[in-house]
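Example 9 (inverse folding). The structure is encoded as follows.
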């Protein structure tokens, strides 16, 4: 079965709009667990625009499922991660002005520094995923620095249509096959929806997807548990 990490950052975005307690991030995580999600994913950004340190602390303490912490590879956030000890950290690029994570991390261009960051997490028994564009050089660099997994950026696929989308699936498939040959786990995420997920979910070797925006957006109309179950149904169908 392909596993589902639900990114609940948007629940915190709504809460931060009023700087109060609602909607409750932990309650959202519990609803995802009840619906069968395998993991909760949150991004502790340097600007703290949505998820706050206390959210990560609470989730790490009380979740029954795994916690995946997305983060920039910077010392201040790494220190928090090492204290809180999520199951996995997913290293992502982070630009302060961006609306969401825009491209993959340039692992090949920052290999020596990132090798130290990965070693620091592995020494603390925290698994490390690299959020990269589906490019062979980025996969090679991720393997060379001993990452556990690559999360292939599916944003270009999500933004494409017709033949261009088919080409993106080919790029993702080639990068995934190479990652598996290199001994890396293969995850995927960004821009995935209940409608566009199937071709990605059918790529050989996929272990996990992380989905946020589509689930939270649909939750407004059908409820969070139903939105999570809708994605799990597609994953189940494609895992067969
Ligand atoms: N995976 C990573 C590494 C991300 O940065 C994000 C966005 O925070 C997601 C998955 C989820 O993307 P979306 O919200 O478009 O489903």
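The amino acid assigned to each position is listed next.
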């Amino acid at each position: 079965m392909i596993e589902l990490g639900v990114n609940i950052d948007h629940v915190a975005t709504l809460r931060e709009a009023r700087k109060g307690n609602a909607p409750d991030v932990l309650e959202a995580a519990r609803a995802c667990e009840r619906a069968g999600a395998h993991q909760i994913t949150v991004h502790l950004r340097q600007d703290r625009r949505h998820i706050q340190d206390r959210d990560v602390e609470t989730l790490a303490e009380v979740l029954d499922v795994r916690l995946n912490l997305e983060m920039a590879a910077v010392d201040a956030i790494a220190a928090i991660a090492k204290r809180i000890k999520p199951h996995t950290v997913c290293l992502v690029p982070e630009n302060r002005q961006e609306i969401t994570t825009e491209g993959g991390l340039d692992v090949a261009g920052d290999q020596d520094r990132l090798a130290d960051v990965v070693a620091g997490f592995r020494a603390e028994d925290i698994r490390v995923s690299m959020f990269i564009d589906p490019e062979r050089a980025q996969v090679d660099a991720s393997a060379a620095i001993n990452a556990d997994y690559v999360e292939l950026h599916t944003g270009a696929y999500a933004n494409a249509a017709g033949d261009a989308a088919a080409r993106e699936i080919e790029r993702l498939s080639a990068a995934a096959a190479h990652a598996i040959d290199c001994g890396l786990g293969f995850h995927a995420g960004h821009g995935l929806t209940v409608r566009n997920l199937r071709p990605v979910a059918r790529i050989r070797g996929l272990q996990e997807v992380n989905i946020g925006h589509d689930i939270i957006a649909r939750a407004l109309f059908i409820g969070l548990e139903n939105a999570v179950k809708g994605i799990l149904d597609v994953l189940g169908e494609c895992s067969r």
